[in-house]
Amino acid sequence: LPQDFTATPQCLAGKVILVTGAGDGIGRAAALSYAQHGATVILLGRTIDKLEAVYDEIEAAKLPQAAIYPMHLRGAAMKDYEDLANTIEKEFGHLDGLLHNAGVLGERRTLAQTSVDSWDEVLQVNLSAPFMMTQALLPLLAAAKNASVIFTSSSVGRKGRAFWGAYAISKFGTEGMMQVLADEEFALNQTRVNSINPGATQTVMRRTAYPGENPQDNPLPEAIMPLYLYLMSDDSNAVNGQQFDAQAK
Ligand code: NDP
């Protein structure tokens, strides 16, 4: 994050931004933060009452009206992503930002003990779903001026570690997809593609991965939002193909 960056109050005004996994954790914070900075946010996720709670918070704060798009990324197929693209085109006409945030942890076991079922789920939700969604949404992103795609990685997507199994491998794949897309899309239509490693953050996923840890040792999702805002705002128009860390190491 450039040291001189501060998000201006309306830095996302007029933008339409889709956030996956918007009902909880980091995705919820990002959706609220984007709305607070003027964006119209599309809240995508699998648990409708969580999405409704975020929608209601945005309404109560009198921010640009959000939209809810329920979707279960485990079973979604290309047709579902095409429906998503058609709906966004019909309702909004353009898409300026896509935050791939939804993710699952899978089994915290050695690869030797990892079940194929768990492998399939993690790879589907964390890697194949973002691939299909991005492919379906690329024409809309290309039509927008300076669109931004953000992938969510992890420290174990940059250096593998024991017991991180399919999750780590899915995050390595995410980084690879980010780099390939960045190299393809930016030159063609100015769509920039980058990845964020949020770092240890107080969420359900972190508590599940580290049950022995005091959750309060980690920052709340709200604290890591400056980087999420930067990469969606026009301040980062020239930034492409980069791996970012939301927290200092
Ligand atoms: P949470 O578990 O708190 O939130 C994950 C979100 O993804 C939830 O909204 C969840 O929906 C949604 N989701 C999961 N599976 C599906 C699915 N099949 N279909 C649709 N939505 C789904 O996790 P975090 O907020 O912590 O994580 C967000 C991202 O950040 C993830 O990609 C994670 O890998 C990454 N990350 C997090 C770190 C941390 O310390 N928290 C560290 C490094 C990376 P629901 O609530 O309905 O289950």
Which fold name fills CATH's third level, the topology? Rossmann fold
Main sheet record: 7 strands, parallel
Sheet with the most strands: spatial strand order: 3-2-1-4-5-6-7
CATH architectural category: 3-Layer(aba) Sandwich
**Ligands, ions, cofactors:** NADPH dihydro-nicotinamide-adenine-dinucleotide phosphate
CATH superfamily: NAD(P)-binding Rossmann-like Domain
Broad structural category? alpha/beta
Can you count the beta strands? 7
Shape: globular
Overall structural domain count: 1
- CATH classification, class level: Alpha Beta
Mean pLDDT: 97
What are the secondary-structure elements, in order, as H or E? Answer: EHEHEHEHEHEHHE
List its salient traits.
alpha/beta, about 250 residues, binds NADPH dihydro-nicotinamide-adenine-dinucleotide phosphate, Rossmann fold, single chain
